[in-house]
Structures are given as C-alpha cells and as structure tokens.
Amino acid sequence: VQLVESGGGLVQAGGSLTLSCVASGNIYSINTMRWYRQPPGKQRELVATITSGGAVHYEDFVKGRFTISRDNAKNTVYLQMNSLKFEDTAVYYCNAGIQVARNYEYDYWGQGTQVTVSS
Fold first, then answer.
1. Rounded mean pLDDT of the chain?
2. Which of 39, 58, 77, 85 has the greatest number of CB atoms lying within 10 Å of its CB?
C-alpha cells in the first residue's frame, strides 16, 4: 500500500492550495484519513481528520480556512487550504488507516509534500 501526496508548492500569503493524497495497492477498505504537517524545526502536528463516513475535525489553527474531503471511489483525500499564512509553511503528510483484509488494519504515511507560504 502506498500513499502519494501532491499539490504542494510556493504560494503568497492569502493564497490557496489544494493537496491530494491517493492510496494505492492491496486495499480492502480505508478508514480514517488525516493530514498532518511538520513546520521547520518543529514536531509533526495533526491538521485535520475525516472518517470513512465523512465526519471531519479540524485543529483550531486551521478552522475556517482549511477543508478536508475524500473521494472513496478514488481512494483519495484532499486538503483545500485557503487564506494561507506564513506559519502554514510546513511539510504536509497524509495518513490513513487502511485495511488490507478484513480485520487487518495498518497505519500508512505518505512521503510528504512541501508547502511554502511567502509573507
């Protein structure tokens, strides 16, 4: 199983980016999917979560600016990021709980995609 992120890049403050993460491989089902980020010199932190049923949760520092969504038919999770701030600069990682068979769920991570916001 692989998770591959895309969509990162350089954007000016106030701008927008949309990240995508596609899961591929031996997938029975995908449960909760998350976006994390790791700012320069800091620890990795949770950004947003979406369950298999579509329930979402956001950390306070992105509420009202970021939107997480998923397309189960495409095994893809998205992160729409609006009103970007300099402090949103980080490597963004996709994470998912994926069942490779019934009752066999494992935690997978993508390789990360860099988001740089210029002030």
1. 97
2. 77
- Give 71-90 pLDDT, tens digit per residue: 999 999 999 999 999 999 99
Residue 56 phi/psi, 5° resolution? -120, 155
Q: How far apart are CA 82 and CA 51, in angstroms?
A: 22
First to last CA, the chain: 37
Question: What span, in angstroms and rounded, lies between the C-alpha atoms of 105 and 96?
Answer: 10
Average pLDDT over residues 50-55: 97
| 82 neighbors 16 (Cβ within 8 angstroms) | yes
> What count of other Cβ atoms lies within 10 Å of the Cβ of residue 59?
15
Is 30 a residue whose pLDDT tops 90? yes
Q: Which amino acid is at 58?
A: Y
**pLDDT of res. 119:** 86
DSSP codes joined into one string, 51-117: -TT--EEE-TTTTTTEEEEEEGGGTEEEEEE-S--GGG-EEEEEEEEEEEETTEEEEEE---EEEEE
